[in-house]
Amino acid sequence: MLKIDDIRSGNQLAGARLIRLIENNEPSAIELLKLLYPLAGNAFMIGITGSPGVGKSTLIDVLILEFRKLDKKIAVIAVDPTSPFTGGAILGDRLRMQRHATDKSVFIRSMASRGQTGGLSRATKDTAIVLDVMGFEIIIIETVGAGQAQFDVAGLAHSVGIVCIPSSGDGIQAVKAGILETGNLFIVNKSDLPDAQASFHDLSAMLEMKQSSKTGWQPRVLKTVATNGTGVKEVAQTFLSHLDAMKKDGSFDAKQRELERFYFHTLLKDFAFEKINLFINKSPDIKHALTDIELQKEDPISAAQNVINKLCRFNN
To answer: What percent of the chain has pLDDT over 90?
Structure first.
């Protein structure tokens, strides 16, 4: 049976077991998380996002090396897309980071997005709590990098790095999607490709036009070639500089409260969804409503409203 001391001691087998229970939504895991939460809040959470194919996993692989040179304990949560047919995930990111498998100060976990909007599941935050209590100083969350995920990662991380590549149009799309409001660091990866300098200047110009942050931190633009490590040291240093800046100007505590609010709202939605599913599975009203709709005794709008009214009164 898992105990808090198993997690606090940094036991990776115990941590992996608890994370598995979290992914399976086991009640015992939820009870342990209640006890672990007050012990968390010490890790620096970094979000890495960007479109598929920009080299996020390769960048993180080298970023781990740079943080390890500083003797930091690093954990990575790689959120992979879930198959809409099988519910399984590709889980390919962990395969790219196998060189760290024997390093006891590195913990890498691939997780399925489980169909969540934006590709981030509640299990991601729950896992981060476990890793935080295990003593990992830096936790990197890599998102699927599509759509809403680029916004949602800001609700999980203190500092967000957005990765793009030259000539991809990512810079213009970032402005259209409002991504400039999310990123604290913009990384032009594969900068040995043509037009890298142009992409760098475009992003820099867009950031200059952006209104100044309330915290005083001006987002940086850096160029990297993750395959050979070029520029990755500067990325690691910039993330740590952002952490220092937040602690100096007091915005770190404000960001921490923002993350807690995001987590609370995520839990509310998740628990409510579980209740809805329970209601749907147990209530005969759903079948009756569908029958009435098929027999044209009631329109779908009225039927849905009636079911929701009953749901609000449902108590398991």
So the answer is: 53
Task: Give the model confidence (pLDDT) of 207-241 as tens digits.
Answer: 887 665 666 788 999 999 999 999 999 999 999 99
Beta-sheet strand order (sheet of 44-50): 106-112, 74-80, 138-142, 44-50, 159-164, 185-188, 220-223
Average pLDDT on 92-114 reads 75
Sign of CA dihedral 49, 131, 159, 46: negative
Round to whole Å and give the CA distance between 185 and 227: 19
pLDDT at 270: 87
In Å, what is the CA distance from 162 to each residue of 30, 42, 131, 151, 254? 32, 23, 23, 11, 22
Rounded to 5 degrees, what angle do the CA atoms 146, 147, 148 make? 115
**Of 97-106, 142-151, 248-257, which one has max mean pLDDT?**
248-257
DSSP state of 167: T
β pairing state of 220-223 and 106-112: unpaired
Longest dimension (CA), the chain: 70
Structure tokens that stand for 91 in this block? 């889980």
- Reading phi first (left if > 0) and then psi (alpha if -120 to 50, else beta), residue 165 is in beta
| Cβ atoms within 10 Å, residue 122 | 17
What's the CA gap between 48 and 102, in Å, rounded?
24
Two structure tokens written together for 236:
């690691």
Note the Cα 222 to chain centre separation in Å.
Answer: 22
Q: 116: closest CA among 139, 149, 86, 90?
A: 149
Instruction: Walk me through the domains of the chain, giving residue ranges and CATH numbers.
Output: 37-250 (3.40.50.300), 266-312 (no CATH)
Beta strand residue intervals within the chain, DSSP E: 44-50, 74-80, 106-112, 138-142, 159-164, 185-188, 220-223
What is the rounded CA–CA span in Å between residue 282 and residue 143?
35
